[in-house]
Structures are given as structure tokens and as C-alpha cells.
Design a protein that fits this description.
Layout lengths: L4 E8 L9 E10 L2 E9 L8 H7 L3 H4 L5 H12 L4 E3 L2 H14 L7 E4 H8 L8 H7 L10 H19 L10 E2 L12 H14 L12 H13 L1
Parallel strand pairs: 1-4, 4-5
Antiparallel strand pairs: 1-2, 2-3, 5-6
Helix pairs in contact: 3-4, 5-7, 8-9
Length: about 230
């Protein structure tokens, strides 16, 4: 069992790291098996949080209204991580968002990681669900606020220690850190149809927006169109 690592979790506006954003990062730095430091911070998204995400996480638009922008929070989180191994539940999801967020500001983020979901899939095959909530229930691990980043990260750290206690001696290979990978795809330019539709919406809504048809990406155009249609 690792005695020093970072357990982390992110809450996001959706499931696609190329189109959606991180709205909260939660992490704990473990040293010699004990929590040495904590990282808990909201990120102000560029678009509003949907009712579905608020229903899932409890995070509202008012809660992130005064938060710092992505570039500032992510840079601080990368410093917090130092050279530690990352531990997460379905860690590839959280890593993909962090990787894309870091890459957007030209920051490298190459990490070794351990996935408690993969460990559970191999050691607890009899369980119907391997979600963090289900595994916490199975092992009586308290999670005071599920789907909030820090509390999920803390629950993941407890789950990792529990799984290691029961299974690491029998199957040490699945507990070894592996290189986390995610290839950040180059943003695609907006289509002529998107640009034309966006222009028409701006004229009809009579709003002033700062955007460049020559540089706007497909995902940015999609977000702007969604915001204008909602308004």
C-alpha cells in the first residue's frame, strides 16, 4: 500500500473533457498514511451550470460566481500534486479533464495513477455495481457529501486503503501505479453552418458578443449557440 499519494476528484459540467468544464477540484495529499494537506476549490465556468448537474452535485451557479478562473486554479492544483501518484475512482475520467484543462494553458500534466474502480472490477466481481457509492456502502465507508469533489476524493482514499488491506497481498500487480494517458485532440474549427447560425442568433437577440469567426472552435460555437437559445 502506498503511504504517500494524492487522492483526487473533479466535478464537471458534463462528460466530455473537450467540450465541458471542471467546476470543482477536491484532493488530499497523503503522507505516511495520513492526510497532510487538502485542496478544495471551485472553478468559475465560462457557461452556466445546467439544472441536471446542480441536481447531481448540489453545485449552483451562485456558488461558482465568485470563483477563480480555470487557469489560476488548475495551475495551483498542479503545484499541489508535485510528483505524487494520483489515486481516483475511474481516475481516467478525472485525469482527462485535468489534462485538457492544463493543456489549454500550455501546462504539462503527466502522472502515474491507481484506479480503485479497476481494482474493484477485478477483486469484487460478485458485486452488481462498482460505483464509488456502492463500494462505500459495501465497506461502510462514510461519505458525508457524495458527488462533491473533496468528499469523493476522501472516500476514494479510504476505499483504496480498504481494498489494499484485503487484496494487495493476493494480487499485488493490480495495485501498482501505471502511466495515465489521454491524448488531447486539437480543437476543430466551427463549421460554416454554425457560424451562419450564430450570426443569425446574435442579430435576432440583439446582443453584443466578442467572438472571431476565423478562430472560434466547434465546441465554443456550440456553447454560445446553446446560451443564446436558452436566453
Amino acid at each position: 500500500m502506498l503511504k504517500s499519494y494524492i487522492a483526487f476528484d473533479v466535478e464537471t459540467t458534463g462528460l466530455n473533457p473537450l467540450e465541458n468544464e471542471i467546476i470543482e477540484i477536491g484532493a488530499l495529499k497523503v503522507r505516511d498514511g495520513k492526510v497532510a494537506e487538502r485542496f478544495m476549490e471551485f472553478i468559475k465556468p465560462t457557461t452556466s451550470i445546467s439544472p441536471a448537474i446542480t441536481s447531481l452535485t448540489g453545485i449552483t451557479n451562485d456558488m461558482v460566481a465568485q470563483a477563480r478562473p480555470r487557469c489560476s486554479v488548475v495551475a495551483d492544483f498542479l503545484d499541489f500534486c508535485e510528483e505524487d501518484v494520483l489515486i481516483g475512482h475511474n481516475v481516467s475520467f478525472d485525469y482527462s479533464f485535468m489534462k485538457c484543462s492544463a493543456a489549454a494553458d500550455g501546462l504539462p500534466f503527466e502522472k502515474m495513477g491507481i484506479d480503485t474502480l479497476k481494482i474493484a472490477q477485478k477483486t469484487l466481481k460478485e458485486l452488481d455495481s462498482k460505483s464509488l457509492g456502492s463500494l462505500c456502502d459495501y465497506y461502510n465507508i462514510e461519505n458525508k457529501s457524495a458527488h462533491r469533489a473533496y468528499h469523493d476524493a476522501l472516500a476514494t482514499a479510504k476505499l483504496y486503503q480498504t481494498l489494499a488491506h484485503y487484496f494487495e497481498e493476493k494480487d499485488p500487480k493490480i495495485f501498482k501505479p501505471v502511466q495515465l494517458t489521454y491524448k488531447v485532440k486539437k480543437p476543430q474549427p466551427a463549421t460554416p453552418k454554425q457560424i451562419a447560425f450564430l450570426n443569425n442568433l446574435i442579430r435576432k437577440k440583439q446582443v453584443k458578443l466578442q467572438w472571431n469567426p476565423g478562430t472560434i472552435t466547434r465546441s465554443e460555437a456550440s456553447r454560445m449557440i446553446d446560451e443564446l437559445l436558452k436566453g
